Amino acid sequence: MADLSQLVKAYDVRGVYPEQLDDRLAELFGAAFVQVTGAGAIVVGHDMRPSSPGLAASFARGAVSRGADATVIGLCSTDQLYYASGKLDLPGAMFTASHNPARYNGIKMCRAGAAPVGQDTGLAEIRTLVEGWLEAGAPPPAALPGTTVRRDTLTDYAAHLLSLVDLSAIRPLKVVVDAGNGMGGHTVPTVFEGLPLDVVPMYFELDGTFPNHEANPLDPKNIVDLQARVLAEDADLGLAFDGDADRCFVVDERGEGVSPSAITALVAARELARHPGGTVIHNLITSWSVPEVVREQGGVPVRTRVGHSFIKQRMAETGAIFGGEHSAHYYFRDFWNADTGMLAALHVLAALGGQDGPLSDLVSSYDRYVGSGEINSTVADQGARTEAVREAFAGREGVTFDELDGLTVTGTEWWFNLRPSNTEPLLRLNVEARDEVTMTKIRDEALTLIRA
Question: Are 371 and 439 in contact (CB under 8 A)?
Fold first, then answer.
């Protein structure tokens, strides 16, 4: 019997194919998904991994066996699946392992309107059902099975995104796009068609074995090719998408990476111009610049824990217009509170193309501090090391603590957050300060304590 404890994560299902996730299991997940959501119909899509079409078909077959109708949209990005879930008002399942290596696959599930399914919102129940059926041999069949229909949503998805950003007056731009052999190679040509863009494509061939580099643009080594190409082409900017194309990373005309916090602040300012006084969500390891810009633009910043389920939950609770994370996930009220890197990219293109200066100048006002990036340390006892850090900084003048997510320590000129990994014996450190010298000093002091 499969060990689902290694497969069912906090927000999704993810494991090695076929050792941990195979077609039979996918079929059971499809049946359980229908039973837990009570859905009479669902929508299913998949990425370009070799195992994805078969897994998606099996999931749909399981759903149909429980009496649900399945709309199969085939190859799509994760945010294209969210579009279909929102537009059709159906629960959805996306087969992808995002930026994980080729041997992995997984399922991202949502309720109707792209509402997330995580451990506390149905995923634990789905796992329990699947485990029970594995033990029994099979789920009981429905009295009347459902039907399967195929539908292409790519054109409608592109039209919806383009209706949310005014690109009618932008100047011509040269943009290098690195799709990483992922789903950006499928969506970018349709979304960008007809815009005044000279697109230089990199690795647009759909290939789930990722022959050129890992499709994770947050790792600096994976944007080296893009940075070099932006300089070689004298381009205005570069865009890098991850494997399932729901995240987008931006490179400026100098080949320098633009921090996702700066993109969050830029898009927040644009969305607040459309929705004055709106609420903007940011997680606690985005830059100080994000809440500052939101307040300057007349908006209300709301700070949350790290993780898309927390962001989406707070967006729904507060009616927020936009949300951003340090990991280059960007969430929009106009997109069912779901994350879409493509819509964030269109905002960057609109902002850059609506003025004459280079991207580095445009984002400089949103990039005000010096950050360390996320630094992982393997530790034997996460709690003990965290407490050692707290004790070392306790009693210092002007220093405060909070525990919204891990431990955040804030001084007058700096802050840092220390979070335990849920799945590994790691502590994750993020430091920010007003200048490089201060950031380096605080970072090194914290790391010495963590790794003692």
Answer: yes
Question: Do the two domains 4-152 and 260-364 of this chain adopt the same fold?
Answer: yes
Cβ count near 396 (within 10 Å): 10
- CATH of region 4-152: 3.40.120.10
pLDDT in tens, 380-400: 999 999 999 999 999 899 999
Closest CA to 375 of 413, 326, 410: 326
Residue 150 structure tokens: 């195929």
52 as an active site residue: the answer is no
**Token representation of residue 220:** 């600096």
Indicate the pLDDT class of residue 1, thresholds 50, 70 and 90.
low
Q: Which CATH superfamily does the domain covering 156-255 fall into?
A: Alpha-D-Glucose-1,6-Bisphosphate, subunit A, domain 3 (3.40.120.10)
Distance CA 183, CA 341 (A): 12
CATH topology of domain 370-450: TATA-Binding Protein (3.30.310)
Q: How confident is the model at residue 34 (pLDDT cuts 50, 70, 90)?
A: very high
DSSP type of residue 378: E
Query: Tell me: the pLDDT tens digits for 57-95?
Result: 999 999 999 999 999 999 999 999 999 999 999 999 999
Q: How confident is the model over 394-446, as pLDDT tens digits?
A: 989 999 999 999 999 999 999 999 999 877 899 999 999 999 999 999 999 99
User: How many angstroms from the chain centroid is the CA of residue 375?
Assistant: 19
1 CB neighbour count, 10 Å cutoff: 6
127 three-class SS: helix
Beta bridge partners of 72: 44, 150
Determine which one of 52, 65, 77, 98 is catalytic.
98
Question: Would you state the structure tokens that stand for residue 382, as one six-digit string?
Answer: 């996460």
Domain locations along the chain: 4-152, 156-255, 260-364, 370-450
Q: Which residues make beta-bridge pairs with 239?
A: 177, 250
Fold for the domain defined by 260-364: Alpha-D-Glucose-1,6-Bisphosphate; Chain A, domain 3 (3.40.120)
R_g over Cα of the chain: 22
| Contacts for 258 with CB less than 8 Å, ≥ 6 apart | 249, 250, 251, 252, 359, 363, 367
Rounded Cα gap, residues 438 and 449, in angstroms: 17
